[in-house]
Amino acid sequence: MKNEIAIDKKAVARAVRTPLEVYYKAVEATGYDGSTERPGDWEMNEELCKAIAKSKYVSQHLDWFYVIEHVYAVLDNHPPLKPAEFAEELEKLIVATAGHRDYLAIFPLSFRPAMSSAIPGIRKPVVKNRAVGKFSISPAVPSSKALNKIVAKHGFPLIDDSNFQHAMRTSNEAFSRDMVVTFDIHGAEDQLRWNADIGFSSFRRLIEVFGSLFGDEPSGFGIGISVNHFFLLNKANGELRRFPTRTPSYVNLPLSATLFQAIGRPAFNNFLSKVSSPNETMYGRLRNAIKFFSMALNADDDVASFLFYVVAMESIFSRDKNNPIKMTLADLGAMLCFPPAQRLKAHERIRKAYDLRSSIVHSGTSSVRRKDVGVARALAARSIYASLALCHQLENGQGKLEDRFFDHLRDQKLGLVKATAPRELWALPETNDGDDD
C-alpha cells in the first residue's frame, strides 16, 4: 500500500504558497501556541483541497479534515518550509502513517428465522467458514475466543474479553447472530466508515438476490433481530470501535443450506466484484437494480414492495425513450431470463406486472395481491442474475459494456446471435402466479 501513496506535489506546492507566507509571517515572532485560530485559513482552502484530492489514494481513503491534521503536523514539526519542501514533507507523513489506517471491518449479519428453527433437533447450523473474494464468512461468535480465531486469521491483534463483552452489551448481542462477515479495509476513520458500510451493503444485497432465487426454506416466520452496528478493529493499536450501520444488517429471508451454498458459487464473487466497478454505466444500472430489489424485499407494505421490484427491472432494461417501456421490459426480460418454452408466459407476466405498476402510479390503485408481489420478486431477481451473467460474458469486448449489452439483446431478438443460457437460472421452477389454470 505504501508504494501506491503519492500526491501531486507540484499542485500542492502551488496551493500552499500564499497560506504558507501568511502563516509564517503571523507566527514568526512567537510561534503558534494553539490559543488562537491558526493563520492561513487552511481548512477553507479550496485550491489545496483540490490539489491534494488529485491523488487517487487520498480521494479513496482519506477525508479532508484528516488531511488537514497532517498539514498541521507538518507545520508544527518543521522549521519554516518552502512550498515544494512542504509538499514533500506532507507526502512523507501520509506514507509514514499508512500503517495506522489498517482496519478489520466486522459486520454481524442476521436472517429471518426459518420454519425449521422452531422445531428442536431439526434445524442444523448451515454457516461454515468461507472466503468470498475479500469477505470472510464465519458462524456466530458468542465469545471473545471465537472472535479472536477470526481476528488472528486476518493478522490483527487479539481482542480483550472485557472489550468484547462491552461490544456485546452495547450492540444488542450482535456477535451472537447468524453470521459474521469480516474484511480488511484501509483508510482514515470517517472515510473508512462510509467505504466499509457501502462494501458490506453490496454484499448483503446480493445475498438477498441469490437467496430469493436459490433459497429453499419456506418463507419463515416472525421477524429476525436486526443488527444495527458494525465494528472496526485497528491493526496498529488494537482498538475495537462500534459504529451505527446506515441500514440494518439483516436479510429478510431464511438462511438455508442452499442459500449458503449459492453464496459460495463463483458467480456470486464474480458478480459482487463487477457491481463494485465505478467505470461501467451498465454496472451502475445493476447496482441500482440490486438496491431497488433490496428496498422491495424490506418494504413494510406490499404496494411499495411491488413497485420497487418493477423499478428494479426498469433500471436494467429501460433505455430508449422512443420505445414503449412495457414492451421493452417484456421482450428483453422474457428473452434473457427464461428458456424458450417459458418465454411466452414470462412475457405475459411482465406485461401484467407493468400494467399493475401503471395503475398504481397513474390510476390510484392502492392494493396488490401477495402473489403479484411474489411474481414481481421472481422476475426482478431473474433479471438481475441474467443481466450480470450476460455482462460477464461480454466483458472483454470493445466499447462500452452498456452498448454491448443492449446490442447483444437486439441481435438475439433478430436471431443473429445465440441466446445466453445460465443453466442454474433456467433450471429453476417456472415462475407461477397462480393464474395458469
What is the compact description of this entry?
With 437 residues, this protein is α+β, with helices and mostly antiparallel strands.
Features:
globular; 437 residues; 17 helices; 7-stranded mixed beta sheet; 10% strand; 7 strands; alpha+beta
Describe, in plain words, how this protein is organized in 3D.
This protein has 437 residues and is α+β, with helices and mostly antiparallel strands. The chain has helices spanning 9-27, 46-53, 56-61, 64-76, 83-96, 144-153, 161-169, 189-214, 257-263, 266-275, 281-297, 302-317, 325-337, 343-363, 370-394, 401-413, 423-426; strands spanning 102-112, 130-132, 135-139, 179-186, 229-234, 240-244, 250-254. A hairpin with a 2-residue loop joins strand 2 and strand 3 (135-139). Helix 11 (281-297) packs antiparallel against helix 15 (370-394), helix 12 (302-317) runs parallel beside helix 15 (370-394) and helix 13 packs antiparallel against helix 14.
